[in-house]
Amino acid sequence: MIRLTDVRLDEHALALVEEVLRSGQLAQDRMVAAFEQGFSATAGTEHAVATSSGTTALVTALQALDLQPDDEVIIPALTFVATLNAVLESGATARIVDIRSDDMTIDVARVSEAIGPRTRVLLPVHLFGCPADLPALEALAQPRGLRIVEDAAQAPGAAVQGRQVGSWGVGAFSFYATKNITTGEGGMVTTSDGVIADRARVLRNQGMRARYEYEGIGHNFRMTEMQAALGLAQLEHLDEWNDRRIENAGRISDALGPVKDLVLPITPKGRRHVFHQYSIRVKDSSPVSRDSCASALREHGVETGVYYPKLVHEYPCFQGNSRVVVDDVPAASAVTRQILSLPIHQWLEPRHLDHIAEATCLVMAG
Ligand SMILES: *Cc1c(COP(=O)(O)O)cnc(C)c1O
Fold it and tell me: Residue ranges of the alpha helices (H) in the chain?
């Protein structure tokens, strides 16, 4: 079976973890500081604050902005549940808007319409590794004094006009097991705003400024030294691995180009899309449905994924929640029916990619 995710740790990663284990210093210390320093260079920010997960990175970023229950955070309808959970955890109201059907990131025209007196934060998600239209979002946010928080969980190393994601707004990254680099569980907040970075560090550590001096309600959102060792070792390979994902996407797109019932992922001009997922869409008019395509691919030894089978607000647990406000989302509703992710990771060889493409062509031919 060709899997969607394949984690391979090299000797350097194992050696760094062993160094931590032998040192006996397992909780946040020098290795975390080194990973933060390395990651801030990657994101092009002055500060990076490591956390226990991508979700807690988002919560930390939002809580650092001190949001009130009436404050609105605008998020896209197609995203992982963590985006919405983090907004609700921060105490604010989530306003859910539509996505663009071409690159599947938040639709800036819809964001513009949704902005009102209660809006405080624009929270784009760089879905599948494709950066949202950050220059357009910045142009909306800046004159209105709004903050941008980027859900960059799927997009370390992605950029727009040569400027890294996570440096346009406050960035939140994830190092969960399936992400482009992984520490098993882990996350990072990035910012060049010293005040936000300082708040994030205090929030992550029980609201503690100095030993047993508490400034407010905080959490334990710290990363361990073992996680940081894994992250530090993989950071060296991030650019090369992302390049491989981009190359792999090109090879599959070339082969799938002629399949008329599919819409292939695009990379908008000026953006570096790092292909956390290679997500095709099976058109509604296709005689082969998305779900039958997925099960036929499985029979050909190709694992696929549906990200996501429903829009984030469609689960019963969020219905009737007065802090979840939903706009019209026709594009996102169509994409959620059609979307299908094929394996694209850096360890796939040309023969695997050719097999994935051939099997997809065969299956779509009915
Ligand atoms: C993975 C992910 C998160 C959450 O990260 P965790 O590390 O799993 O907590 C948030 N948003 C998006 C879009 C993600 O893909």
Answer: 11-23, 30-43, 54-63, 81-89, 108-114, 134-144, 194-204, 225-235, 238-256, 290-299, 330-338, 350-364
- Nearest 5°: phi and psi at 114? -80, -20
Q: How far away, in angstroms, is 15 Cα from ligand 1 center? A: 27
Predicted confidence (pLDDT) per residue in 63-99, tens digit: 999 999 999 999 999 999 999 999 999 999 999 999 9
344 burial class (0-12, 13-18, 19+ CB within 10 angstroms)? buried
| pLDDT tens track for 137-179 | 999 999 999 999 999 999 999 999 999 999 999 999 999 999 9
Residue nearest to atom 13 of ligand 1 (CA): 80
The angle formed by the CA atoms of residues 76, 80 and 81, to the nearest 5 degrees, is 95
Q: CB of 82 closer than 6 A to ligand 1?
A: yes
Q: Which pLDDT band, with edges at 50, 70 and 90, does 283 fall under? A: very high
What is the Å distance from ligand 1's center to 197 Cα?
20
